[in-house]
Design the sequence.
């Protein structure tokens, strides 16, 4: 039905960002600087930065999962209909994507080798987006 269209769009968007992050993880040590002497490392600072950025972009999927949780809350518990959900459509997509992109760009100075892949090396930083998603869910 009409209600399923919004849900399918959220699931497709979540899948897109999850695939981006998963592909970045799949490269494991390949993008890490070869000067780090890790098995399989063939990269440099820029390839490490790219991997870290796309891993962070992948966390948009967890924020979109919060939107899906809100969708179910609003439809099941509060009985929102398709028309009302559709009027709030931007709120299901815009905040998760913008927050995730902001985190990805803010982390650029900190992307470095974390032994198996490049990610944000700042203390506690990689956990912050996940913690925020859990709190808001």
Sequence:
């Amino acid at each position: 039905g009409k209600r399923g269209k919004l849900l399918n769009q959220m699931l497709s968007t979540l899948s897109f960002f999850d695939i981006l992050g998963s592909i970045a993880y799949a490269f494991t040590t390949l993008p890490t600087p070869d000067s780090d002497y890790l098995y399989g490392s063939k990269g440099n600072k820029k390839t490490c930065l790219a991997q870290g950025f796309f891993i962070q972009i992948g966390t948009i999927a967890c924020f979109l999962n919060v939107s899906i949780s809100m969708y179910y809350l609003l439809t099941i518990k509060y009985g929102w209909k398709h028309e009302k959900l559709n009027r709030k459509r931007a709120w299901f997509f815009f905040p998760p994507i913008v927050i995730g992109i902001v985190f990805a760009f803010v982390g650029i100075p900190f992307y470095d080798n974390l032994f198996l892949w490049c990610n944000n090396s700042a203390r506690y930083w990689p956990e912050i987006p996940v913690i925020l998603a859990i709190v808001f869910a």
In short: The chain has a mean pLDDT of 91. The longest helix spans residues 2-26. The two ends are 25 Å apart (CA to CA). The CA atoms of residues 87 and 117 lie 41 Å apart.
